[in-house]
């Protein structure tokens, strides 16, 4: 989970073979996102040790604005806001990544099976994910969480995962459908590979980018939901996280007292973490669909003409069927990759490029 | 027509699933919510209230799960969602029907504004890819990563506490009696500005990004090139050729993101103590008012389904392909 992201950063500077695979890491956006994320991961690990005070300890410095002693000021009972945020980082990231992993596992299981198996299984599984997609998630999470007596981190993560897997499943299903009838999959089938082997070793590697983007998206949603639950007092408020800080700020009328330092840092942390994750997701999206790249990226040298995308069309007079994504179920899937640039575009490391072009 | 019927069937199934989930949640959870409540309220609940609670949560030992389920449905069809604890003995249905119009107005108006504005900005930034408008993307990303409720807190701190331009809480001036006259409506609008702006700011980024990405994809299609080659005006190509096709996914995306927006709106209402359904949910959570919570969830889900159905109909009107299949 949190560790794997730092691993990825390490592989960035690894030998050339792995560099091609992680090429999307070289974009400025992704880099920025990963750096911010790494910073928060560091805080999550070291937070409780580097916190200058005990987050629960009260002192006689009541509601002090930020100073050298208390960088983020103090609360109404003299607690140090900085320490609360530092200690709370771990809970936020833990729940976020745990829910992300659980939901991604669910969405891969349901989405890929639906897309690959087809038929009645597909109908039922798609129906299931569409239902979960339409039912508003947050109220459902609130209801379930408030019925449970013991609302620990693990349980909150499970509830969030249970309500947020559907989007990923839908995108994965569409993507699997387009991969299912490719030549290399047929070839694998003809050589007698078992269905599960085909799914695991032929189809799944080509879904990596989609799965990764779904994972990051779910983590964003999970972090926001978790903080929301803490903020409205459904989650366990004896456990520090950024939402708990906001909960106490709100219930102690920090706003009316003008104690901006009580709620501004926590919110900025949430926004920073969310931005970092979104930036990583943009990187993945642009990796999958090179057309989305902004001029700040690698294509700066190309002179923009209004309304036209600088795609090397002459290299590919027609879109060859096997190497382009079929834009299955484009409707609604704003995040789903559209078509990649035709082959021959120098900067298209498109996902399914590993397949034999024969 | 076939398309609409298919969607209708889908929403019927989804509504059934939502109601069944709502039925099952209290029954699947460990512990006894009624016992917990009785010990909390220590004799403030009378026997009829306890009986109605037991029926609602299916704690009547003598009934099978199936007969509980049919009972639940027959109560639901009568519009009986149980009695609220916080407003005892007001029925949940009555509490909700008082607050629902506020939420519908707030969500409806703000969603419409953010959709139109966001799509418009998205059209321009996708068309003029590589211009200064691309600089907007990081900003909108940052804003969309901010939780709705925190943006609301900041809005209150700045515009209600520091500068005192707008009221910090409530849906209308407390000295007024709700009625359809000008003083009341203007007061409601005045109170709605801060929550409304908060929601629009938070929700707009998604529309901009979705529309931009679709515009970028569409603007390299052959028919756009043909339109330009024909010498049509820039404006005509942009709106009638590119944007017209690019907007379709944004409309069906509208349906999917609605649940998310409603969730965020509930939080904005909580922060602003806006007299809508989200604030009721907030109070219900605080007071462990399970009947009210479940009623709110049901109403929210059904409203979202209805809105989705409307979006689907708009889609069918705009996209001839859905009609051809009939």
From TrEMBL, chain A:
Main location: membrane
Positions with biased composition (Low complexity): 347-358
Localisation per UniProt entry: Cell membrane
Protein name per the record: ABC transporter permease
Bilayer-crossing regions: 32-51, 92-117, 124-148, 154-172, 207-240, 260-284
Chain spans, region Disordered: 313-358
Organism: Streptomyces atroolivaceus
InterPro entries, per database record: BP-dependent_transpt_permease, MetI-like, MetI-like_sf, OppC_N
Bilayer disposition of the protein: Multi-pass membrane protein
Similarity-based family: Belongs to the binding-protein-dependent transport system permease family.
Domain ABC transmembrane type-1 residue range list: 93-281
Swiss-Prot/TrEMBL keywords: Cell membrane, Membrane, Transmembrane, Transmembrane helix, Transport
From TrEMBL, chain B:
Segments forming domain ABC transmembrane type-1: 100-311
Topology in the lipid bilayer: Multi-pass membrane protein
Keyword Ligase appears in the UniProt entry: no
Record-annotated membrane-spanning stretches: 9-29, 102-124, 136-161, 188-209, 246-272, 292-318
Source organism phylogeny: Bacteria, Bacillati, Actinomycetota, Actinomycetes, Kitasatosporales
Protein name: ABC transporter permease
Domain of life (superkingdom): Bacteria
Keywords: Membrane, Transmembrane, Transmembrane helix, Transport
InterPro entries reported in the protein's UniProt record: MetI-like, MetI-like_sf
């Amino acid at each position: 989970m949190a560790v794997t992201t730092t691993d990825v950063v390490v592989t960035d500077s690894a030998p050339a073979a792995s560099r091609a695979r992680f090429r999307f890491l070289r974009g400025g956006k992704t880099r920025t996102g990963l750096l911010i994320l790494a910073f928060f991961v560091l805080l999550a690990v070291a937070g409780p040790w580097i916190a200058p005070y005990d987050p629960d300890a009260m002192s006689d410095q009541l509601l002090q604005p930020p100073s050298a002693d208390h960088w983020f000021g103090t609360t109404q009972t003299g607690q140090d806001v900085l320490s609360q945020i530092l200690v709370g980082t771990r809970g936020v990231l833990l729940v976020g990544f745990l829910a992300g992993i659980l939901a991604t596992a669910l969405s891969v299981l349901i989405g890929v099976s639906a897309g690959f198996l087809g038929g009645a299984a597909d109908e039922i599984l798609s129906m299931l994910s569409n239902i979960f997609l339409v039912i508003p998630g947050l109220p459902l999470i609130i209801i379930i969480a408030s019925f449970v007596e013991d609302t620990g981190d693990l349980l909150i993560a499970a509830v969030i995962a249970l309500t947020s897997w559907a989007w990923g499943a839908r995108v994965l299903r569409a993507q699997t459908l387009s991969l299912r009838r490719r030549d290399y999959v047929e070839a694998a089938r003809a050589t007698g590979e078992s269905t599960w082997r085909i799914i695991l070793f032929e189809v799944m590697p080509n879904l990596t980018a989609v799965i990764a983007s779904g994972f990051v998206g779910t983590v964003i949603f999970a972090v926001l939901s978790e903080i929301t639950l803490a903020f409205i007092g459904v989650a366990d408020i004896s456990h520090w996280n950024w939402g708990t800080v906001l909960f106490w700020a709100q219930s102690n009328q920090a706003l009316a007292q003008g104690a901006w330092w009580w709620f501004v840092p926590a919110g900025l942390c949430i926004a920073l973490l969310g931005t970092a994750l979104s930036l990583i997701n943009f990187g993945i999206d642009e990796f999958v669909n090179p057309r989305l790249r902004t001029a700040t990226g690698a294509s700066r040298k190309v002179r923009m003409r209004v309304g036209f995308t600088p795609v090397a069309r002459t290299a590919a007079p027609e879109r060859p069927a096997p190497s382009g994504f079929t834009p299955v179920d484009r409707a609604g899937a704003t995040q789903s990759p559209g078509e990649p640039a035709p082959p021959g575009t120098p900067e298209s490391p498109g996902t399914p490029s590993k397949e034999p072009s024969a | 027509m076939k398309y609409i019927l298919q969607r209708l069937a889908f929403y019927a199934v989804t509504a059934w699933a939502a109601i069944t989930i709502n039925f099952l949640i209290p029954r699947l959870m460990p512990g006894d919510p009624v016992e917990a409540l009785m010990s909390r309220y220590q004799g403030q609940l009378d026997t009829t209230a306890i009986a109605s609670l037991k029926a609602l949560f299916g704690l009547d030992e003598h009934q099978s799960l199936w007969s509980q389920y049919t009972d639940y449905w027959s109560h639901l069809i009568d519009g009986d969602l149980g009695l609220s604890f916080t407003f005892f003995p007001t029925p949940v249905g009555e509490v909700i029907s008082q607050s629902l119009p506020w939420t519908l107005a707030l969500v409806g108006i703000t969603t419409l504004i953010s959709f139109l504005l966001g799509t418009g900005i998205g059209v321009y930034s996708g068309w003029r890819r590589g211009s200064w408008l691309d600089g907007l993307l990081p900003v909108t990303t940052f804003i969309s990563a901010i939780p709705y409720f925190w943006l609301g807190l900041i809005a209150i701190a700045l515009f209600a506490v520091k500068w005192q331009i707008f009221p910090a809480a409530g849906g209308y001036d407390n000295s007024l009696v709700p009625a359809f006259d000008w003083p009341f409506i203007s007061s409601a609008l005045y109170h709605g500005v801060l929550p409304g702006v908060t929601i629009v700011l938070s929700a707009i980024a998604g529309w901009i990004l979705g529309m931009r990405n679709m515009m970028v994809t569409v603007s390299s299609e052959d028919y756009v090139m043909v339109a330009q080659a024909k010498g049509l005006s820039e404006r005509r190509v942009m709106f009638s050729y590119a944007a017209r096709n690019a907007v379709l996914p944004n409309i069906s995306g509208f349906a999917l993101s609605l649940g998310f927006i409603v969730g965020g709106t509930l939080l904005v209402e909580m922060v602003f103590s806006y007299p809508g359904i989200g604030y009721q949910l907030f109070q219900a959570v605080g007071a462990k008012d399970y009947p009210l919570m479940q009623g709110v969830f049901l109403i929210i889900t059904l409203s979202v389904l209805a809105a989705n159905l409307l979006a689907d109909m708009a889609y069918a009107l705009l996209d001839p392909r859905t009609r051809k299949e009939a």
